[in-house]
Amino acid sequence: MSSEPTTLARLSMSLPAELFRQLDVMVEERGLPSRSQLIAELIRHALAEHEALTRPEDLLAGTVTLVYRGDRGRVRQQLAQTQADYLKEVISSQHVFLEDDQLMEVLLVQGPAVRLKDLCDALRGIRGVQQLQLVTTTALLPPLHEQDGHETAPASGKDAA
Questions:
Q1: Distance, CA of 6 to CA of 84 (rounded, Å)
Q2: Which of 5, 59, 95, 131 is an S-S bond match for 67, by CB 3.0 to 4.6 Å?
């Protein structure tokens, strides 16, 4: 993390009174020091979503969270097979048992936005999957492997395009 101060730019905006009130309630409920911090977080999230849609070859890192139920053995087998089909993109997986015979699985993923979307579509197609959400960021994981004694850095989507 850089110790250099971040350059700030000022933004002035007008909002409907009710939306402004809801924003303040959200800042308060999250215990944030300012509206600016919340708005910056919301903008970062929207930019990551936008990048995934408009630049499908860019590399993104993120999580896929899914909730499922049903014949656990069958559903888990299909989830495992789908993850194996996307072996380059699925870094790790963890699941926990929830109440009411449900399970939650969280996948740590990284890869081209289009491949992450395809992975999510394949997982959604498994009978028993009730909820699925992909959350991405444009920041990438550091290199996970060394090749020929040299670290291999993931190509940033911006350089690869």
A1: 41
A2: 131
What single letter denotes the amino acid at residue 93? S
The phi-psi region of residue 101 (left if phi > 0; otherwise alpha if psi is between -120 and 50; otherwise beta) is left
Query: What CATH number is given to the structural domain containing 90?
Result: 3.30.70.1150
Report how far residue 15's alpha carbon sits from residue 83's, in angstroms, rounded to the nearest whole number.
43
Assess whether 63 and 133 both reside in one domain.
Answer: yes
At 142, list the tokens: 């550091």
For 49, what's the count of Cα atoms within 13 Å in the CB-facing half-sphere? 9
pLDDT (0 to 100) of residue 159: 44
Task: Give the residues of the chain that fall short of pLDDT 50.
Answer: 1-2, 156-161
Task: For residues 92 and 117, state if they share a domain.
Answer: yes
* pLDDT given at position 149: 56
Q: Write down the pLDDT at residue 44.
A: 85
Burial status of residue 78 (CB atoms within 10 A of its CB: 0-12, 13-18, 19 or more): buried
